[in-house]
Amino acid sequence: MHDQQPHLPHLPHQQQPPHNSTRFPVAVDAALREAGWQPGRWDIRQAEEWADALRAHTSPAGHRHAVFPAAVEAWAEFGALHITATAPGRQIAPAAVRIDPLHGLHLARTLGDLGRALETEVAPLGAEGEEQAVLAIDTEGRVYGIDHTGDWFLGQDIDEALATLITGTQPVRLTSSPTGAT
């Protein structure tokens, strides 16, 4: 099992629909604003409280959470939002998203394992649906979904990940590839 690492696919940036002068596609912008987001939103106090709670938590087996700037920044801008799509999905049903890293509080080992496999650190970001999947973010800001069917790459950054989830774009499954193959 240790001889395989998840392979992060090379993904070209997907063509986005016309923007309405924001950084998000129209449907994503509408869903974010409906949830209470606006440009410049920044709740660093809440983000720091979550960071402290995650740092203080240790699993029974001694696993701890990673906390780093990309995660804290995502929590500060989008934290506590419950985002629901305002349009039908493109390829799959759009997902409701709740940005709250405490949804992953008891998954320190799972997130640590994913981080080791990806050769980075991974922190909890929130949940998809009624907690069908946990959302996670790495030190570079890439976002992943972890559910009972596997691990999914949602986007190169929080913006792409929100677009993937809210527009119902099919995410890419992380796959294992042998590291010693010739």
TrEMBL record:
Chain segments carrying region Disordered: 1-22
Comp. bias (Low complexity): 1-19
Pfam families (UniProt xref): SUKH-3 (PF14433)
Protein's UniProt name: SUKH-3 domain containing protein
